[in-house]
Automatic annotation (TrEMBL):
Name of the protein this chain belongs to: DNA-directed RNA polymerase II subunit RPB3
Lineage: Eukaryota, Fungi, Dikarya, Basidiomycota, Wallemiomycotina
Listed SMART domains: RPOLD
Any one GO cellular component localisation term in the record: RNA polymerase II, core complex
Pfam family, one: RNA_pol_A_bac
Record field: compositional bias (Polar residues): 312-321
Keywords: DNA-directed RNA polymerase, Nucleus, Transcription
Record region (Disordered): 297-321
Family: Belongs to the archaeal Rpo3/eukaryotic RPB3 RNA polymerase subunit family.
UniProt-listed InterPro entries: DNA-dir_RNA_pol_30-40kDasu_CS (IPR001514), DNA-dir_RNA_pol_insert (IPR011262), DNA-dir_RNA_pol_RpoA/D/Rpb3 (IPR011263), RBP11-like (IPR036603), RNAP_Rpo3/Rpb3/RPAC1 (IPR022842), RNApol_insert_sf (IPR036643), Rpo3/RPB3_RNA_Pol_subunit (IPR050518)
Annotated GO MF terms: DNA binding; DNA-directed RNA polymerase activity; protein dimerization activity
Species: Wallemia hederae
HAMAP family: RNApol_arch_Rpo3
Amino acid sequence: MRVRVRNLEAERINFVLENVDLPLANALRRILIADLPTMAIDIVNIQENSSVLVDEFIAHRLGMVPLISTACDRLINYNRDCVCLDHCPKCSVELDLNIKCTTNETILVTSNHLQLRSQEAQDTSGNFIDPPIGLSDDFGLPINYHLQDVHPITICKLRQGQELRINCVAKKGINKEHAKWGPTSAVGFEYDPYNKFKHTSYWYEQDEKAEWPLSANATEETPPDEGGNLPLDAEPRNFYFDVEATGALEPKDMLLMAFAELQNKLAGIVLALDQPAQQDGDMNNANLVEGMDNVDGGAGASGAQAVDDWGVSTSQGFDWQ
């Protein structure tokens, strides 16, 4: 496996995944979409809402605001796994939204009005819980809050006399639980830009080449010979990824997390396959020992061979460029 990054921006990464097969490339795509943890507002306590929008509308908008989640996979616990009574600095972030319109001018309430709130929480033993060491000062704040040239996310508008007083609790989660935890807004990949496998030859109306023009990725491969035949066992090996992030995670960090998660999933499959093999080996050992006396080493070989048949190394290295 080889990863070659072609373009890296603040919220986008374009790379080539080489020497892999299609199922593995698609698994990486699905992990980038649904399996990377981020922080998102999960609980909204509304003390005052005199705007024209109902509470549920505002709560939904707040939940969909991307929050800075750098290193939350390592430093923040899932709330369900934390030792605190409800929520604490080790599993959550609290934000306040307090704003009131006192003039004739309409106020536009945006994500930049969210402010971090210090937390004091206790564990089940009554000890105070300190925040994790290593979190950035802006952890949990809305993305792009410090950029003047980027318009923040609109939450609602307030006229004179209207007010919002809201306390929010952001927790760690993944996109499989809710879309608000998704770190990416779009993930796609392409393979076979010259259509060597004739996949697009079955889906066109009049002119195949006009309806399926060459993409920019065609420069990465050599054009095929006209009329040449492709081996029946040929498979795509290079995949051209384009990933757009929400801003909650840095694109390169997101890619590294995705590869780590992919390795964990593959290791879990290997271990699951090892267990029945080991059990079969143990049963064979017991049967051999029962039926054979004074035979040394005959029983252990069968079980060891069964385990070796499933042995797969999960320490696959990645070649970065």
